[in-house]
Write a structure and sequence with these properties.
Blueprint lengths: L2 E5 L2 E3 L5 E8 L7 E7 L5 E7 L6 E3 L7 E6 L4 E6 L8 E8 L11 E2 L3 E5 L2
């Protein structure tokens, strides 16, 4: 089993930056792709970003491409999501996922965390 714990969310203003972290425990996730999904109030689960097991390939949703950066440190069992130039529409619960597949599509991940809330307001 893999447990995922996210951190780093908060209340920010438009244009601000945040960096989310997700630490995996229970077993090594170095052979898995890792990623971030989000769910805004009243909306479905949206894939945000993913990184393959080697860390050499990344995938982003069009809505965040150029603003968000995903990275990982397999030795630390950790994945980060650096979010820049945040917008109101980025407000959501962000959760970390682990998957055998890359890119990571909805419903294809093996493990997921409880999430960390990001709220963008002025």
């Amino acid at each position: 089993q893999v447990q995922l714990v996210e951190s780093g969310g908060g209340l920010v203003q438009p244009g601000d930056s945040l960096k989310l972290a997700c630490v995996a425990s229970g077993r090594s996730v170095s052979r898995y792709a890792m990623g971030w999904f989000r769910q805004a109030p009243g909306k479905g689960h949206e894939p945000v970003a993913a990184i393959d097991a080697s860390g050499s390939s990344t995938d982003y949703a069009d809505s965040v491409n150029g603003r968000f950066i995903i990275s990982r440190d397999s030795a630390k069992n950790t994945v980060w999501l650096e979010m820049n130039n945040l917008k109101y529409e980025d407000t959501a619960l962000y959760y970390c996922v682990v998957s055998f597949k890359f890119p990571i599509n909805s419903g294809t991940y093996e493990y997921w965390g409880r999430g960390t809330q990001v709220t963008v307001c002025s």
